[in-house]
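Researcher: Please predict.
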Amino acid sequence: MFNYATNSVIAGRDPALVATRTFFDEHATAMLNAAALLGGPTAHRRCLRLLSGVSESSSLTRALRHELVWLHRLVCLDLVGDPETEETARFAMIDLLDPRVEEICIEADSLYDLLVTISDLDPGCDVILRELFDLSAA
């Protein structure tokens, strides 16, 4: 889906970036669709910026890791609950029998697996560790 030719050698030095690019090669469309459904145009644009950042970066920066955590929180419905948020309003309009719901659940699990992989590759990454710890306690 993306052209990584210009910085693929540099990225090869960052296994977390390679894992993230591999993930998005397979899941980018589904993640964009999930972001649009659950968060609207603003979330869709934010997801596009994340994909662009992953494509253009030479390492998986702290900012990109924060964005991965945001995307995970979005698809896990962690942002739903406050009646003032767009995510809550959008979730209320979703038919739970809609086949997209199951796809989003599968994608959320896949994104979680990516976060675990990133954590395994960089045990000191507190951004990812906090996300994994918070979800396992839920």
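Model: Helices lie at 8-11, 15-56, 62-75, 86-92, 99-121, 126-137.
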